[in-house]
Task: structure prediction
Amino acid sequence: MEHKPPALQRFGWLPGVATILAIAACYGTVLVITALSLLGITLVVHEGVWAGAISVFALLAVVGMALGYLPSWPPVHVQKEAPPWEEIRAPSLGGACLF
Result:
């Protein structure tokens, strides 16, 4: 049986949900505005608020992934099977998304 750190057990759902919310905030807003425009309804979305929502959800996804790398307490010897580059993937992709 694989031992997971307590932070990962509690927040293991956070990266997936935050990523889905970021995608929904991005593409979902475009789809809703397009659908309403086809119906003749004009809706104006403040671009700063829209970008802020996407950024917040993207940061939550990065934080959720980082929580998976926190050590458990008391310390338990857990062998990581992931290559070392995986630990820098989340912050670098999060930074690229925010850029």
The mean pLDDT is 77. The chain has four helices and no strands. The CA atoms of residues 8 and 35 lie 39 Å apart. The longest helix spans residues 14-38.
